[in-house]
Design brief:
2 strands, Cro/C1-type_HTH, XRE family transcriptional regulator, transmembrane, mainly alpha, elongated, 434 Repressor (Amino-terminal Domain)
C-alpha cells in the first residue's frame, strides 16, 4: 500500500501540487495580487506557479502555507514529490539516433542552420547569444584602430 502511494506521488507530483495550491488559494479567497503582497512573490510568479508552468521555490511554498493557513507538512511533501518528478523527467534520455552521443547533439543544437544567424538569438534566461568570434573580432578591430591612431598622433608630435 505504501509503495503504491509512493508511486502515485512520483507520477503525479507536479499535478497534485498545483491542484492542492489552487484549492488552498480558492479556499482562502485571496487574489493573485493579494497573495503576491503577502508572500513577497509577484502576482505573475503566482500565476506561473498556480498554472503549473513553473514549480514554486521552497520559500514561496512556505510563505503560501503561512498565508493561507495550510498544513505545511502535507504541502511540502507534495512540493518534494513534484521536484523529484521534475528531476526524473530532466534525467530521462531524449530520443536520438544510434551512435550519436549527447555531446554531439548538444553541439549541433548550438550551430545555426544554413541561412540562419545566431547573432541576436535569445538564449537561456532571455539573454542574447553572440558568437565568440564576433566578440574577439570586434576586440581585435578596436585594438588595431587604437594602435593606428596612436601611431598617427605620435608622428604628428615629432
Amino acid at each position: 500500500m505504501a509503495r503504491q502511494e509512493d508511486r502515485n506521488s512520483e507520477t503525479g507530483g507536479i499535478d497534485e501540487l498545483v491542484t492542492q495550491l489552487r484549492r488552498l488559494r480558492a479556499r482562502s479567497g485571496l487574489t493573485l495580487t493579494a497573495l503576491g503582497e503577502r508572500t513577497n512573490y509577484s502576482k505573475s510568479s503566482w500565476g506561473r506557479y498556480l498554472s503549473g508552468r513553473t514549480l514554486p521555490p521552497y520559500q514561496a511554498v512556505l510563505s503560501f502555507c503561512r498565508v493561507v493557513e495550510a498544513d505545511q507538512e502535507r504541502v511540502l511533501a507534495l512540493w518534494e514529490a513534484a521536484h523529484r518528478e521534475r528531476a526524473r523527467r530532466a534525467n530521462q534520455p531524449s530520443e536520438r539516433p544510434e551512435g550519436v552521443d549527447g555531446d554531439a547533439v548538444a553541439e549541433a543544437e548550438l550551430v545555426p542552420a544554413r541561412g540562419e544567424s545566431s547573432v541576436g538569438v535569445t538564449g537561456p534566461g532571455g539573454r542574447v547569444r553572440v558568437p565568440l568570434g564576433v566578440v574577439f573580432g570586434s576586440a581585435l578591430l578596436g585594438l588595431g584602430l587604437g594602435c593606428l591612431l596612436g601611431a598617427r598622433v605620435a608622428r604628428s608630435h615629432v
